[in-house]
Amino acid sequence: MPMNQQIHLVSRPSGEALSSNFQLISRETPALQDGQVLVQHHFLSLDPYMRGRMNDAKSYTAPQALNEVMGGGTVGEVVQSKSPKFVIGDQVVGMGGWQQYSVVDANQLGALRKVDTTHIPLSAYLGAVGMPGVTAWYGLVKIIEPKAGETMLVSAATGAVGSAFAALSKARGCRTIGIAGGPEKCKYAVDELGFDACIDYKLHKDAASLSQAVKDACPDGVDGYFENVGGMVLDAVIQRMNAFGRIAVCGMIAGYDGAPLPLSYPALILTNRLKVQGFIVSEHMEVWPEALKELGTLVATGKLKPRESIAQGLAAAPEAFLGLLKGKNFGKQLVKLV
Asked: What is the rounded distance in angstroms from the CA atom of residue 4 to the CA atom of residue 12?
């Protein structure tokens, strides 16, 4: 069995996460038992939710255990099998974590899923045709429930979730606006992702200025908003929501360091009769087949062209992850392991 490099969480952050919270180690890979497979990971997914799991705090999921492999989505190839369900060479997606190999019980429901890379790149199953894509789909389709002609807005517009949101929203006949950081990202949002306009939040120092930019880009107001950021961005957008607007809350990356994120205008939820709903996509597995079918078709037909930021090698994962939390990535952040 091969030696397996892993990255463990060895300490919890106090405020901002640091590279010293992680440690790269080597472990022997255990021999397979009946019903198990050995997966060699080709790509590792880095996602903002991982920052919340680093804290020892009450949340929708258990905290990441110390001195164990950091959890995370992976795609790779079966290289050994003692299960009739998988053969050597099968390409699979799972939650293998921050390591080169994982031993998986093939009988555990949902632990490993075969994927077809004929028309869809393997890495896309961690992004547009994976958890981020389904996240965009659920927030838009099940919470916002868009109608043709309405105005949709999404923060972190050029990330893995935001880029999928754009394709899904445009397919439903909606005017679709993004919020992103920097002119390069905003140009990509409009030219390649199909956004009707993109607001550069870095040009605005406070919520009032950003809110005016949202008004300029959305003169008819905002009917549906997909929230990935929180903080100043939410303060700015909530002032531009139309009556009976819907807000799907997926992330609050502005508050992942533990500082409170007070809302400046909560009365607008009442006066505009807004629906504000948070969600965790893993709690809605019943929609995944429908969502993945639509997302896979969008990627395979070229209607969704997600960009990827790829760090090379497992040792690069911590710094790439810290960069993701500061918006340094462009599109889906991955670590290439093979």
From this structure: 24
Q: How far apart are CA 158 and CA 234, in angstroms?
A: 17
Residues 257-275 pLDDT 10s: 778 889 999 999 999 999 9
80's CB contacts (< 8 A; 6+ apart) are 32, 37, 38, 88
**DSSP 8-state assignment for residue 145:** -
Question: In the chain, what is the straight-line distance between the N-terminal and C-terminal CA atoms, in Å?
Answer: 17
* Alpha-carbon separation of residue 88 from 34, 38, 77, 82, 220 (angstroms): 15, 9, 8, 10, 55
Q: Is the pLDDT of residue 6 over 90?
A: yes
Q: In the block, which residue shows the tokens 């290289």?
A: 79
Pull the structure tokens for residue 159: 């990330």
Model confidence, pTM: 0.91
Q: For 27, which DSSP code?
A: E
Residues pairing with 104 in the sheet: 37
Nearest to 169 by CA among 185, 199, 189: 189
3-class secondary-structure state, position 262: coil
